[in-house]
Amino acid sequence: MAFKCEAEEPCILKEPTPFVGVAKLGESSVDVVVQMWVQRADVRQVRSGFLEKIKFAFDQHGIHLPYPQRTIHLQNSTDPMRQHVGVEHE
Known about the structure:
Elements: H1 2-7, E1 19-25, E2 30-35, H2 43-60, H3 80-85
Antiparallel strand pairs: 1-2
């Protein structure tokens, strides 16, 4: 999808050749790197437009970006403030 989105953007230079690859396999993610070259004056426009196109393509293909989630286990306590934030108060 990244190559297709890149090919549709006329401001992205053809040389050097754009690169898309896996940068890291995270705990619950596959981090992808996209490298492309543009004229300095086009950087903001291309970055913003490219990210919008990638998000739209993900949505069209049913790929959802998860939000980070944490599970917090609280110890039994009768003090609601301590239960909430783990801090004692006076």
